[in-house]
Amino acid sequence: MATNPTYMILHHFLVVLLLLLQQHSILTQAPPGGGKWNLLLSNIGVSAICLLLNTDRVVIFDRTDFGPSNISFPNNQCRDNPKDLTLKHDCTAHSVEYDVASNSIRPLNVFTDVWCSSGAAMPDGSLMQTGGFNDGDNNVRVYKPCNDNSCDWQEFDSVLKQNRWYATNHILPDGRQIIVGGRGQFTYEFYPKKTGADQSYNLPFLSQTNDPRIENNLYPFVFLNVDGNLFIFANNRAILFDYVNGAVVRNYPTIPGGDPRSYPSSGSAVLLPLRDLQGANTTAEVLVCGGAPKGSFTKANNGNFVGALSTCGRIQITDPNPQWVMETMPLARVMGDMVLLPNGNVLIINGASMGTAGWDLGRNPVLTPLIYRPNNPVGLRFEAQNSSSIPRMYHSTAILLRDGRILVSGSNPHAYYNFTRVLFPTDLTMETLSPDYLDPRLARVRPKIVSPTSHSQIGYGQQLVINFNAQGRINRGLITVTMVAPPFTTHSFSMNQRLLVLTGTNHIRANVTSLRTSSYQVRVVTPSSNILAPPGYYLLFVVYREVPSQGIWVQIK
């Protein structure tokens, strides 16, 4: 029987289409359970609290009152502090700067005790760190970045009105920082100080959420809402706070179950990506994950380590009738960290599945990170990643780097540095997790930003033209542009963490230069106000099919 020519043509077309779809699948999908771990340094000298600077260097520090660290000052330099509680003549550093490009560490000199302090990046890119313990509890320290290894900490003594230990900072639209709470401090204050706002102000919500002898309201989760007010979560509930007039605008419902999520029952939280609608009603959602059941801290101190919480609560804080929507993680977790990825997904990493935060109070480390995809349907949002081999318990950190990797370090559940004969030794290693979007098989779809150049300054509500290269032709509807603020990360919370999805990406122009590489131009509108994007440095990414470019630094002012 003769073959129908039309049938043959259609059959050939379908075969080719199937092969193209298979190739497309290989190029745009990393295998489930992805992510690659890489050990960078076996000893950075200190256990990590950290912030990424716009010089692609990470400032790391630890408390000063536990004795010598594992990194010495150069040139016989020492720190002589008669107020230090452990070592008044100390020739070791308690802060370091990590250079991402050279994978190297440089010791820094922090003088007073920064134990369990707080901080955020300032509009000029400096790190402002506040409070601590003992002689440092009402001090402010500033680290101004440089490229020639000449920069170091500057200290300003007794400039805070209250002692700030276990407090939370957030940058405000005018460039100041608000400092909220702290152990025994049910107040807030601002820094730098200005006339008319130079005092400490009561915040009764903090005393209302304080569990006697346990607390469960330290390091409160603070986010700047799109209306200019502050969302403040402590223990198991939250308020919307007008910090200008010192008034509670709204009380949010208690998170279902009523279990605490704040230190020492340490869960973690993020403000989910904000899509700037340029004057329309931008919505904001907060995600709170993990923590420990009521009573866990007391039980852990008595040797009974209760299983951590496996739930996440998600709430649209701009909704007229906000309600928590609960989800269940594949793994229970306390002392975890949450990192906003350039593609808008959330990484949940580090921590334990039993116990609480505090000295030797955690058990059963959780070695498997999770990816949370906020735009997926409920029930399809969590995906396990490849496991680390290093427990990251109390005093661990994780931050996003400009190339899309996650820098992971820290873990010291002891009052001093203990490396032997303990369940979880002090860990001074540094490693990275490369999420599945960095899988080599996705290199073909990874954009490369050509312009603007890094460290360009941008204004508010302006058109921004971004030129980038990509291999082959792209689906223009799958391009997004994001801006990520570098957070200050400690005790399971990344202060000032913020991701904006810029609008206008439907304006894309292509210039196909070869079969392998094409150049594209996308026009977006920068954030419309300093409420959506407080002034300072951000990492800007072009993302295609959830695969981000390397970021560039931009400064909005």
UniProtKB/TrEMBL annotation:
Keywords per UniProt: Oxidoreductase, Secreted, Signal
InterPro entries, sorted: Gal_Oxase/kelch_b-propeller, Gal_Oxidase_central_sf, Glyoxal_oxidase_N, GO-like_E_set, Ig-like_fold, Ig_E-set
Record's subcellular location: Secreted
This protein's record includes keyword Secreted: yes
A molecular function GO annotation: oxidoreductase activity
Signal peptide: 1-28
Database matches in Gene3D superfamilies: Galactose oxidase/kelch, beta-propeller (2.130.10.80), Immunoglobulins (2.60.40.10)
Any single GO CC term annotated in Swiss-Prot or TrEMBL for this entry: extracellular space
Domain of life: Eukaryota
Transmembrane segments: none
Domain Galactose oxidase-like Early set: 446-556
UniProt domain Glyoxal oxidase N-terminal: residue ranges: 52-437
Official protein name in the record: Aldehyde oxidase GLOX
Lineage, broadest ranks: Eukaryota, Viridiplantae, Streptophyta, Embryophyta, Tracheophyta
